[in-house]
Design a protein that fits this description.
Layout (H helix, E strand, L loop, with lengths): L2 H6 L8 H4 L15 H5 L16 H10 L4 H16 L36 H10 L1 H8 L2 E6 L2 E7 L1 H4 L4 E4 H7 L1 H7 L10 H9 L3 E6 L9 E6 L6 E2 L2 E6 L4 E9 L7 E3 L2 E6 L4 E9 L4 E3 L2 E6 L4 E9 L3 E4 L2 E4 L5 E10 L4 E4 L2 E4 L5 E10 L4 E10 L6 E11 L5 E10 L4 E11 L2 H8 L5 H17 L4 H15 L5
Parallel strand pairs: 1-5, 4-7, 5-8, 6-9, 7-10, 8-11, 9-12, 10-13, 11-14, 12-15, 13-16, 14-17, 15-18, 16-19, 17-20, 18-21, 19-21, 20-22, 21-23, 22-24
Antiparallel strand pairs: 1-2, 3-4
Length: 491
Amino acid sequence: MSTKAIFAQPSPPQSRRATAGRQAKEEPRIFGGLSRDIFDDANESSYADGLKKGVDEELVRKISGDKKEPAWMLEHRLMSLKIFREKPMPMWGADLSHLDLDDIIYYASSGAVETNNWAEVPADIRRVYDRLGIPEAERKVLAGVGAQYESEVVYHNLKKEWEEQGVIFLDMDDALRDHEELVHAYFMKCVPSTDHKFSALHGAVWSGGTFLYIPKHVKVRDPLQAYFRMNAKNMGQFEHTLIVVEEGADVHYIEGCSAPKYGSQALHAGLVEIFVKPGAKCRYSSVENWSRDTYNLNTKRAIIERDATMEWIGGNMGSGVTMLYPCSVLVGEGARCDHLAIAFANQGQWQDTGAKVFHMAPHTSSKVISKSISKAGGTAVYRGQLKIAPHAHDCTATVQCDALLLDEISRTDTIPDIQIRNNDVTIAHEATVGKLSEEDLFYLTSRGIEEDHAKAMIVNGFIEPIVRALPLEYAVEMNRLIELEMEGSVG
């Protein structure tokens, strides 16, 4: 990486309002005071004492019964449990041999009752979200917020302006009760239980999550956010996110998540399904910052119809093991997708991330930009899949994978799978690996910049294209999380 390349980047996100086309007025800096303690500290969790670990039919029936679900959902859960038992553990990618699925709590309630008033959330739980800045973000920049704690949503609210325009923003349990036919039409139609072992597990034990429905031609100006927090030791979280963006509509949805550090394993196997109808646009952003204890085995997929646009922006850090490959299925002519992602692998971490894009219609286009940073022996893997169907002519696809190694003991791999079934396409794939060079550091330190700050400047320039796509407040959060991971790095 040359010095010229570093300074060709725009300035860091905190000062790049002109680059991002933002308004000149000063924006709130909600996440500026983040520290690792905010994420790693746990509340008291006596509600989890004595809870059964492992998953079986009795537990599945209990979850469905507690939620008073319709018969078809219980049948779906039981079918998924059967598939889960039959499916083997993945033998590729990250090492899952130490994950003990019988040592996980699959369903736990803190006892809090869902509300749309933060003052009614129990004080100890509310403090968690206050420290994370979620209520402040809702007041200043968000159209709506959901907050899940363990297996259940404790807070959910949509601003009246959007409710009056027909936007539905509920937790999945309420959506299943209030909009059963709509949920039934889409639930696990994008990602079926037969996909893999952890989609089947999710289908059996899912709890909580978000249902978001945007009516035709409604363009929601401000983002909506859900934040998922695991608190108890050995906890599993299996939230389900279902988004339907009708024709000509536009929405930006953000998910954040975290868990405290106990020194024993936790599991996250959420599932995201997005349906983008003709001419619609959906942006999905996530900052996944689970603890080192967590196996993050998430599944995300979108079906994009004619002239529609799907944008994925993601940051993955924190979890000890991640396997996550957001997928876009371009089924309509003129559909397009963009995947922008950052993965940070620190000591003892294996970040196995990437993107899947299936061009199933003519005149479709896709762009994948993946950035990874490896430090202190961490491993970052880009694992991507690009498929172009025989009838999908005049398609354009670009894949760019850039890796930055901060030392001599870390590792990065790029594993692309490109399958092209016709010749009328334009495809580009590029992968680069760079290090923090002595020349770059000397250039900066010779101008009076301290070495640690110089390293942070180089990293900020490296990740800037992805961070730029986030709203300012979340760009600040992402930068601060990277700074926390960078502490004590060696060049």
